[in-house]
Amino acid sequence: MLDRLYSITALSIVGALLVLVIVLLTPRHLLPAAQHPTVSIDRHETTASIDTLAIPQRQRIPVDILRVIDGDTVEVRAHIWLDQQVQARIRLRAIDAPELKGACPGEVALAEAARERLGALLASGKAWLGDVGRDKFGGRLLGTLHDGTGRDISHILLSTGHVRPYGGRKRQGWC
User: Which secondary structure element, helix H or strand E, spans residue 51, and what is its range?
Assistant: First the structure.
């Protein structure tokens, strides 16, 4: 009886990990376009908006925020299945924050302000992760974060001017 319970538990764990691996390794171009944020910038780049569809509940992953690394990266513990958890660094999709090791003192000051704002937005320590994938080089995990009330964290950071829209091309300087 106990052996059967252990084998069912093992199969559940393997199944959950297999689903996570499939989601993380699926190329973005094979996923439906409606799941991806679109970024629009006006001609003079003075305003920006990011439009994301609400993440369906079945695609939301509850996460604990372990630490805020910088203005667009957090370390999370994702609750992927029953008692199964994965710890990972997530870079927020479609935004670019100033770098803490910036090219000038002004960029460093902006980076510290962006990190503080992101920390304040995630102060509850709980959030929802969605639209998880890899960056264009396959090295970093990307995703969208929503706070407990459903607010899109990237959208808030864009609206307050702490970050810029990012479409995967060469970054613009902050100095």
Answer: strand 48-51
